[in-house]
Structure formats: structure tokens, C-alpha cells
Specification:
mainly beta; 4-stranded antiparallel sheet; 11 strands
């Protein structure tokens, strides 16, 4: 059974940092394209960053480029999102997503990030 579990969200002041984790199980982690998405209140879910399978490239949304870093630990089957220089507009529920070789999507339950003074 494929499972993705996010953690690490919370309340942080503008300019602060957080690191999100996405722990996975039930599949061969290296074979999945992994992504972070976010959804702010009243807005559609948007792509934040994507990491290709088998060491493929990583791409970021323009809004987070230079501030967020996606990384993967294949030994731990875990993906991370290091978020620095956070802004109030980064406030959202953050989700991780995995896509298998058959292009099936699997989502975590989300973790809330709130950037506020």
C-alpha cells in the first residue's frame, strides 16, 4: 500500500525557515517522480517543486526559486522541502505527491504552513 505522510509544518515569522518532510512507504521511492504542491485558502492547488525519478532534474515554481530547496533521501524513502526566507504569501497547506511509472498519482494528507508575525 502506497503511503505518503507529510510533517514539519507550523507557524513561522516572515523571513524564517521551515523544513517539511514527506515520508513514504509501499513503493520503490527512486522510481517515482516526487513533487510538492500547496493550496492557500480560496486558491487552487499549485505546484511548488518537482524532482524526477531515478535522479532526474528538479524544477521550481518561479515564486519559490532561490528560497525553497527540494531534496530526496533514497535510503530513507523521504523527500524534503527546505523553505527559507518565508513570506506571508507562502501560507498554505503543503502536500507531497508521488507519480509512478504508470502515471498514477498518490497524495499525502498535507501539512499546514503559516507565515505570520
Amino acid at each position: 500500500q502506497v503511503q505518503l505522510v507529510e510533517s514539519g509544518g507550523g507557524l513561522v515569522q516572515p523571513g524564517g525557515s521551515l523544513r517539511l518532510s514527506c515520508a513514504t512507504s509501499g513503493f520503490i521511492f527512486q522510481s517515482y517522480e516526487m513533487s510538492w504542491y500547496r493550496q492557500a485558502p480560496g486558491k487552487e492547488r499549485e505546484l511548488v517543486a518537482t524532482s524526477g525519478s531515478f535522479g532526474g532534474s528538479t524544477n521550481y515554481a518561479d515564486s519559490v526559486t532561490g528560497r525553497f530547496t527540494l531534496s530526496r533521501d533514497d535510503n530513507k524513502s523521504t523527500m524534503y522541502l527546505q523553505m527559507d526566507s518565508l513570506k506571508p504569501e507562502d501560507t498554505a497547506v503543503y502536500y507531497c505527491k508521488g507519480v509512478d511509472l504508470y502515471l498514477r498519482d498518490y497524495w499525502g494528507q498535507g501539512t499546514q504552513v503559516t507565515v505570520s508575525s
